[in-house]
Specification:
The chain folds into two domains: 2-385 and 402-427, Amino acid/polyamine transporter I; 505-652, HUPs (Rossmann fold, 3-Layer(aba) Sandwich). It has 24 helices and seven strands. It has helices at 2-10, 21-25, 29-42, 47-54, 62-86, 92-101, 103-133, 144-161, 163-190, 196-214, 216-229, 239-242, 251-279, 290-299, 310-345, 363-380, 384-390, 393-412, 420-485, 515-527, 551-574, 589-603, 621-626, 630-639; strands at residues 303-304, 307-308, 505-509, 534-542, 578-586, 607-616, 645-652. The strands form two sheets. It has a five-stranded parallel beta sheet, sandwiched between helices. A two-stranded antiparallel sheet has the order 1-2. Helix 7 (103-133) runs antiparallel to helix 18 and helix 15 (310-345) crosses helix 16. The N and C termini lie far apart (59 Å).
């Protein structure tokens, strides 16, 4: 019953061996734009407004702000297009900082991105619910937080079905937003073309007045504050470079096309709204957003056959905006797990974050992002005001590190790269702009609550360092085991041992050909001398986000697993055993091992399963969290099927500290 319900919610198993599977799951540029571009587009609900209101009564400075915002969008997009070209496998800001600046900047960039994507989900869902609840009676306000948590739960379940499925479901909302906003923004600008000739003159006059009132430095500070507080507009631009692994081949071209769609739509929407504020003389009205006021002004007097439709168009536009904010959460659910997977491959976070589910999605990452976003909403009470303060700091940290890495790359490779001067100029300008926004944002938001984001990010980065050190220590121990056992001297045998059909058989679970598996084999021989006649080595090629890049990568994994098993067979034969192997490729290690062992039990009646397990001298929360204990899991499964499983411990001694 539970299995049927689970299948109904997240769907059935995907066929990993279908040669078309990666092509079917990969996103074309349009769908990638829907899934990843909605974050930036949705920020038009609050980014331009926050920037415009900061200007106070010097509203004509918004013309400079519009130009700066549009240029910044295209500048960051151009810089990230270079990143897509240089790192087509994905990883984005994390991978760029790691490869070009080192592990320290890399883990800081990755940690900042993960926290930012959690806040993306939180603020998107909270803003969307706020927009929808603004049309409901005040008595419904008490249900806002439960509604936000329900939306997060629904989006989590939707993403567990798969990225493409989730994007397809949310596509109508995205299209509704684009149609309404393109129509209204174009109308708001075109209907004021006759006054455009006075716009520049009025702006220059307002600039002179502002300079006389505040001084040149004061005007610059005001502009910089408005520009930085509207910086949430630029979030989401980096998401494409983080998620190129899920794009349709050729990935670089698809990524660049997606980035172009994002840049054009974001520049038009954010810049267009700012310009419309100025042209239509929008002022703050209590209880209403500037966008709501703007749309009301633009649609005033619109009728169809005498019916006033303007008010309904405003309601529909605001509902589309609120709904798009839910779609914007997709950026967190798509790019967040992708970043975690890239960090898991480098062992900054538990390796399970790189694993794929039977639906071929990074399930652990999706669930973690959903739970973390829910916790954030509970902590803040779903308050958009609090979330806005916490939001957008981290993304500019990643922007700055990524583009600084690109500056370093183009400088070091200038002797071999064409057009390196143009590229280094773009990266340098991007670094300067985003670094300026970062510093200004931290200064203005720090005491308002931005410090929470910095503490959480620092804590996450510190946890990553602890995890990495643990994995490094364990890898050192296993390497010493490899050095001792990987090249065991064994005598050559003239005759290959023959199968004993009714003889006792040892089924040995192994991974790669290394000290851990060899230690397990030697322990079996030592504990049961001359007892077993047959050896069957069993392995599962675990397909994770690192391997799932297409048919070629899966085939390469199969060749690798087969090669390791053949070495085990050769070693066992030299030891006097008849040996063979079984393996499969899959995404669920325990399930696949369970199936193989059950099949082998039918073939070898007198069989016993052996599995090695790392045992730490001092058990901690970290050792329990980071090591799957596969042996114990498979033992529980097979015990109830009547198959005996013996776990052989491999000791990991505590390192002695020197004074």
């Amino acid at each position: 019953m539970l299995e049927r319900l689970r299948g109904l919610i997240i769907g059935g198993r995907k066929n990993l061996f279908d040669p078309r599977i990666h092509h079917q799951l990969a996103l074309i540029a349009f769908f990638a734009w829907v899934g990843l571009g909605s974050d930036g587009l949705s920020s038009s609900a609050y980014g331009p407004e926050e920037a415009f209101l900061t200007l106070g009564h010097h509203t004509h400075l918004a013309l400079y702000l519009t130009v700066a915002m549009v240029l910044t969008v295209f500048l960051i997009s151009a810089s990230y297009s270079q990143i897509i070209e240089l790192f087509p496998s994905g990883g984005g800001g994390y991978l760029v900082a790691t490869k070009l600046l080192g592990n320290g900047p890399g883990v800081i960039s990755g940690g900042a991105l993960v926290v930012d994507y959690i806040l993306t989900i939180g603020i998107s869902v909270a803003s969307g619910v706020d927009s929808i609840f603004s049309f409901l009676p005040l008595t419904f306000q008490a249900y806002k937080l439960p509604a936000e948590l329900a939306v997060v739960l629904g989006l989590t379940a939707l993403n567990l079905r798969g990225v493409k499925e989730s994007v397809t479901v949310l596509l109508p909302i995205f299209l509704a937003f684009m149609v309404t906003h393109i129509t209204l923004i174009a109308t708001g600008i075109l209907t004021h073309l006759d006054g455009a000739s006075h716009l520049v003159a009025d702006t220059l006059a307002d600039t002179r007045n502002a300079t006389a009132e505040l001084g040149l430095l004061g005007v610059f500070a005001l502009f910089l504050k408005a520009f930085s507080l509207g910086g949430g507009t630029f979030t989401g631009i980096e998401a494409v470079s983080n998620s190129t692994g899920m794009l349709r081949e050729p990935r670089v071209e698809t990524g660049k096309k997606t980035m172009a769609y994002m840049a054009i739509s974001l520049a038009f929407t954010a810049g267009g709204i700012l310009l419309c504020y100025l042209l239509n003389g929008v002022h703050h009205e209590p209880g209403r957003t500037l966008n709501a006021t703007l749309w009301s002004i633009i649609t005033q007097g619109w009728t169809v056959n005498g019916w006033p439709v303007g008010e309904w168009i405003v309601v529909g536009t605001l509902l589309a905006t609120g709904a798009l904010l839910f779609v914007a959460a997709q950026t967190g659910f798509i790019a967040g797990p992708a970043t975690l997977a890239a960090m898991a491959v480098d062992q900054w976070v538990p390796k399970r974050f790189a694993h794929l589910s039977e639906r071929l999605v990074t399930q652990n990452g999706v669930v973690t992002m959903g739970l973390a976003a829910a916790a954030t909403l509970i902590y803040t009470g779903g308050s958009v005001k609090i979330l806005v303060v916490m939001y957008s700091i981290n993304v500019f940290l990643t922007f700055t590190l990524s583009q600084l890495g690109m500056v370093r790359h183009w400088w070091l490779t200038r002797a071999t790269q064409e057009h390196w001067r143009r590229r280094i100029v773009i990266a340098s300008l991007g670094t300067a702009v985003t670094a300026g926004i970062l510093v200004t944002t931290v200064v203005f938001k720090f005491m308002q609550g931005g410090w929470i984001t910095l503490i959480v990010t620092g804590g996450f980065v510190a946890l990553c360092v602890v995890v990495r050190r643990h994995y490094t220590r364990v890898r050192t121990v296993l390497k010493s085991l490899d050095d001792v056992l990987a090249d065991l001297p064994m005598p050559e045998r003239e005759l290959t041992p023959e199968l004993a059909p009714d003889g006792p058989t040892a089924i040995v679970l192994v991974e790669s050909y290394a000290g851990l598996g060899i230690h397990t084999l030697l322990t079996v021989q030592r504990m049961f001398p001359r007892h077993f006649k047959n050896m069957v080595f069993v392995s599962v090629g675990l397909v994770d986000s690192g391997q799932f890049k297409g048919v070629e990568s899966v085939e390469a994994l199969e060749t690798q697993v087969r090669g390791h098993l053949e070495k085990y067979v050769e070693l066992a034969q030299k030891m006097g055993y008849y040996a063979e192997y079984r393996f499969t490729l899959g995404t669920d290690l325990i399930d696949e091992l369970d199936h193989i062992c059950l099949d082998l039990q039918k073939e070898f009646r007198r069989s016993m399963v052996f599995a090695g397990q790392l045992v730490f001298q001092r058990e901690t929360v970290l050792t329990r969290a980071l090591h799957h204990e596969t042996a114990f899991s498979i033992q529980r499964r097979l015990q109830f099927a009547g198959i005996q499983v013996i776990i052989l411990p491999i000791r990991v001694w505590e390192q002695q500290r020197t004074a």
